[in-house]
Specification:
The chain is mainly α. It has a single domain, classed as Amino acid/polyamine transporter I (Up-down Bundle), CATH 1.20.1740.10. 76% of the residues lie in helices and 0% in strands. The chain contains 19 helices and no strands. The longest helix has 60 residues.
């Protein structure tokens, strides 16, 4: 139990210490006019309070990733906790902060345009396609996951629930952001908090042993390698490129730049805490990786969520907890499709104040999404995991480029960008969805790619590289 609360304390301490350092280096300007004020259109650019933005941002980014990912990551043992804490503080929250603040500084632009401003037009065009593909994968994953849970709970066929959820997504995609998302998400936030706190308290009250196998050794029952698979599997619980597509939605609603740390860095810390809870539940409720693996074999992460929630909290409490798990993916899936619409609109320069023009983009987008949703869930999840972390890597390099151009201390973004380059390249070389090479060869390819990327970055931006007074002081 002490390990769990120590991890929570480290995440919270990371927000106050490292988050403040990141914020200081970036240098928010409270006197700047934000896009929410300058470009207010009553649809996507709408002023909202910091509390409401934080809750919306947290629900936007906290989909199935910080639940399903950490449950699967728990198979590797307590090493997963270490990555959640370190990854969240030094990579994930930094990524989220820069994706939000750079959008805020550039008129609320979508992430492909932000990347293009810092890394060039080639990256911009690549990111337009890559982001839309990722958002479709996210939207589909976040349809199928809750649909399966709702099907288990209600007895209603999963395809029916898929249709119902898609209908809600469609409305949330085309209506002004403050009509559905801005009104109901704060209520969803209360359920989310109950879910995380309630399950943790119940685990303690019922006397479960926290982390019966307290070791950093790889405990995976199938002996899958911890490197690089755990770093891809946990995904959103530590770092997620999907968040970069969501942050601009809220950057268009921020009234003051000084709120950036709590809204973007802070929301990722909140997601890290959710990930810690579910990784802990996976390890502790089943008393080991073998038993957790057996439970996953009965119905995947959705079965695990159902069993843990109903056992620990009883029928009523379990129902509320499961509803919380359903809300998480649905409240990210709707904004995934909304983000895809906005990226396409930016690319095609189609104004979005008119509902007819929003429909022109939304209808074909949902038609494609429905067709892809017919594929096998496991395959979609694997592609989502790699694409998600690859996008995060590119956005970290974008933040590093911005900092070095501004003559600021860039290593807060460059170091995690280099590490994540090694992760995603090794995974692509090793995994079955990639080249299926031996792990040792894949690792050397990943390390080589990371060092090459770092060298090219430093050579390109060497003239601007300085250490700012805020750091040296």
């Amino acid at each position: 139990m002490l390990t769990f609360f120590a991890c929570i304390a480290l995440l919270i301490g990371g927000y106050f210490a490292y988050g403040r350092l990141v914020d200081t280096i970036f240098g928010p300007d409270p006197s700047r006019t934000t896009p929410a004020v300058a470009l207010n259109d009553g649809v996507d650019y709408v002023e909202m309070s910091p509390v409401k933005i934080f809750l919306v941002q947290l629900l936007n980014i906290a989909g199935l990733g910080p639940i399903f990912g950490p449950i699967l990551g728990a198979l590797y043992g307590p090493a997963a906790l270490l990555w959640i804490v370190i990854g969240c503080i030094f990579a994930g929250a930094v990524h989220d902060y820069f994706s939000g603040m750079l959008s805020l500084r550039n008129g609320g632009k979508s992430i492909p345009d932000v990347v293009g401003l810092e890394l060039g037009n080639a990256f911009k065009q690549f990111m337009r396609v890559f982001s839309i593909v990722l958002l479709l994968l996210v939207g589909i994953v976040f349809v199928l996951g809750p649909a399966k849970l709702l099907g288990n709970m209600s007895g209603l066929a999963v395809p029916v629930w898929v249709g119902i959820i898609f209908a809600y997504y469609f409305l949330a995609t085309i209506l002004p952001i403050d009509k559905i998302i801005g009104r109901v998400y704060p209520l969803f936030g209360a359920v989310l908090i109950f879910m995380a706190v309630g399950l943790t308290v119940a685990l303690i009250a019922k006397g479960y042993q926290f982390y019966p196998q307290l070791t950093l050794a790889n405990l995976h029952p199938k002996e899958l390698p911890l490197w690089p698979l755990m770093f891809i599997t946990i995904a959103c619980g530590a770092i997620s490129g999907f968040h970069a597509t969501q942050s601009p939605l809220m950057a268009r609603c921020v009234k003051n730049e000084r709120d950036g740390r709590k809204l973007f860095y802070g929301a990722m810390i909140g997601e890290g805490i959710i990930a810690l809870v579910w990784a802990t539940l996976g390890m502790s409720f089943y008393n080991g990786a073998e038993a957790l693996n057996a439970a996953l074999g009965k119905g995947g992460p959705a079965f695990v969520v159902n069993e843990i929630s109903t056992t620990l909290l009883g029928p009523v409490g379990g129902l509320l907890a499961i509803i919380g798990v359903i809300i998480l993916p649905i409240s990210s899936g709707d904004t995934a499709f909304r983000s895809a619409r906005l990226i396409i609109a930016d690319f095609m320069t189609v104004e979005q104040k008119s509902i007819v023009k929003r429909l022109y983009l939304a209808v074909p987008l949902f038609a494609i999404g429905f067709l892809v949703s017919l594929a096998e869930f496991g395959v979609i999840w694997r592609y989502f995991g790699w694409a998600n972390q690859t996008l995060a890597t590119i956005v970290l390099w974008t933040g590093a480029a911005y900092l070095i151009k501004q003559g600021k201390f860039h290593w807060i973004a460059t170091a995690p960008a280099t590490f994540m380059t090694a992760v995603v390249t090794t995974y692509l070389a090793y995994a079955k969805i990639g080249f299926s090479l031996p792990l040792q060869i894949s690792t050397w390819i990943g390390i080589g790619a990371a060092l090459l990327a770092l060298m090219l970055f430093l050579v390109k931006f060497r003239k601007a590289e300085t250490i700012p007074d805020t750091v040296s002081a």
